[in-house]
Amino acid sequence: MTTAISVPLLDLKPQYQAIKAEIDEVIARVVTSQVFVLGPEVEAFEQEIATYCGVRHAVGCSNGSDAIVLALQAIGAKPGEEVVCPSYTFFATGGAVARAGLKPVWADIDPVTYNLSPRHAAEVAQQCRRLRAIIPVHLYGQSADMEAIHALGSRLGAAVIEDAAQAIGCKDAQGAMVGTRGAVATWSFFPSKNLGGFGDGGMCTTNCPNLADMLRMLRVHGSRVKYMHKHVGMNGRLDALQAAVLRVKLRHLETWHEGRRRNAAFYDKAFSAAGAADSRTPLGQGSGLPLRSPFQLPAPARHIFNQYVIRVPRGLRDDLRGHLSEQKIGTEIYYPVPLHLQECFEHLGGREGQLPHSEAAAVETIALPIFPELTEAQRAHVAEQVVQFVRTHSKSAVAV
Ligand SMILES: Cc1ncc(COP(=O)(O)O)c(C=O)c1O
């Protein structure tokens, strides 16, 4: 009987149980040291992240949102300058741009990968008069087209800042770790990330020693020498407790990535067997099941599946979510309103129809449970319920 199984979108308890002894030990170590902000745990974690990501410098900070603000300040962006970023992303990407006093310029996504479309980014960037940076987001754990975006940034003299909040360990189409090509990459250790802390945490990485130095200053109120302030920075430091927990978790990260990738492969196979194509086939095309699994860039790229996001006809998406909820299956909508249509950005003049691929993704996508500790029975239950519902209800929805 599969119907009695419940499947939360994310359950962190089994992960903690599996590494409880290691975690409890390092928490006790930090508590005993009574060093809670920055300090040796943070420095050791920064070193380990730099090594893992293959970059020269890592600067721990308060969270992935502040990391973007810090990155923009570190490159010396001036108020009023423009930053091209995707509209279909978590709020922080655009929110941080605005918080740094800059103007977000929205670009559409590639409907296959949901990542910033280099073609559209080039189009909107060419209309900018004060372009300073481009922020690709490696959405859901899959790399944006870094080759094209890097070339665009170089051509237009714009810094590339990689919002890698969801993508630690992800590799791009050329097999390079994400975060190694931009001027700065920004990371989040929010608990739901593949590498998640016991609270908020973030990181900036860079290969440039000057930028690293600036980031270190900016995260402590723009100060290198205590009470001497060269810049107006922020209180954007990383806690020692978070660093200690994250150091333990980093040792297990590759195993967890593989668990997520196995679950994704299971869903891909189940959906394909039911007649679904991947997101390269638009929903209106193809004769099979109107469900699209996420397209993965082929190896040497590596998707780390922070989220597994499928696509169904817009008339069906919310009903599917309701049905899965009745079956005790947790889902989430990432993200129901693209940034160009958010109330707080109204003054930028965004309008419906402006970015069709972002707007379509916002009403057609839904994230399924993918965390590494999912049991075989749980993931089978999810796949079965999704397929059954879409099969039964798709005829009316496709016509919507
Ligand atoms: C794409 C993206 N950017 C930035 C952030 C911000 O990270 P944080 O929540 O650590 O501030 C997130 C967090 O969910 C994110 O998904």
Fold topology:
Layout: H1 13-33, H2 40-53, E1 57-61, H3 64-74, E2 82-86, H4 91-99, E3 103-107, H5 118-126, E4 131-134, H6 146-156, E5 159-163, E6 184-188, E7 202-206, H7 209-218, H8 240-250, H9 253-273, E8 276-278, E9 289-293, E10 308-311, H10 314-326, H11 356-364, E11 365-368, H12 376-398
Parallel strand pairs: 2-3, 2-4, 4-5, 5-6, 8-9
Antiparallel strand pairs: 1-7, 6-7, 10-11
Helix pairs in contact: 1-8, 2-8, 3-4, 3-7, 5-6, 9-12, 10-12
The protein binds pyridoxal-5'-phosphate.
- CATH level-4 homologous superfamily of the largest domain: Type I PLP-dependent aspartate aminotransferase-like (Major domain)
Number of helices: 12
Mean model confidence by pLDDT: 96
Into which percentage range does the β-strand content fall? 5-15%
The order of strands across the largest sheet is 1-7-6-5-4-2-3
Q: Given the helix and strand composition, which structural class is it?
A: alpha/beta
Rounded radius of gyration (Å) = 21 Å
Which CATH architecture of the largest domain is right? 3-Layer(aba) Sandwich
CATH class call of the largest domain: Alpha Beta
What's the order of the H and E elements? HHEHEHEHEHEEEHHHEEEHHEH
Fraction in helix:
40-55%
Bound molecules: pyridoxal-5'-phosphate
Looking at CATH, which topology of the largest domain would you report?
A: Aspartate Aminotransferase, domain 2
Total E-strand runs: 11
